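thread: overnight batch results

M.L. [08:02]
morning all. the overnight job finished for the chain we discussed friday. pasting input first so we're all looking at the same thing
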Amino acid sequence: MINSSRRWRRVLRPRTFAPYLLLALLFPHAGPAEASSVSYGKHYVHHVVAHVVTINLNDPDVRLTPVFARRGVGTSERFESILNRTRPTAAITGTFFDTRSLYPTGDIVVDGEMVCRGVVGTAIGIGWNNEVDFIPTRRGAVSDWSAYHSVLCAGPRLLADGKPVVYPKGEGFRDRSIYSKGIRAAVGVTRWNKLLLVTTRQPVYLSRLAKVMRALGARDAATLDGGSSTALYYRGRFFARPDRKLTNLLVVYDSLSGYEQARQHLAPGRSRRKV
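M.L. [08:03]
and the structure it wrote out:
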């Protein structure tokens, strides 16, 4: 057994500590390099391989927003094409859409303006200071999103205050396939104000996805469009590629300048109105 007192004496010998003391005297304000506010990790939880992009919402330079296909609402575009046009740091599948009309199923707000109205789901509301709320919606009711910079109504809800709350029917979802196993995409927020963008490698039930999100540290979480629409991108790397064109994405910028450059391309082809 190693004697702990002897071990610490060896570590703190003057000749070992001196270089660090010298650096501190020469550069009194120097510190460890800050980690990026947007990062990627691969995790294996509850027998599920999950790709996870983590966003530090405490960074005021971070911007999170939905983005539409090139010709706006009711049109679709290749995933890679949307990325080339908007150049985000990271991106994930957005909300569901009707495969015939290509119209999204939930409300979407971009840059404080309503772009389209939907009918179902849980809203992911991003406030003007990057605060994120998960808000239930009611079918047929018109919601007031004036408190939010961006809104993406997706769902069903997975977690509320750390507890599983999977109830698709109660949120207006009628497609039976949502109860089957599927490749999934989800978004969640932790108690430390970190946003998680998650996709799975294998098909899972929503109940299993809720457990995965909780194990990853999410306090609140909801699903995004999945299956053949599942997409996840991070700094030039593709961790999930969709099998079809998409109508909308949820994208992240790690700098205000990157967001400003893409701003005019977020919701093209449609005159918008204040929410």
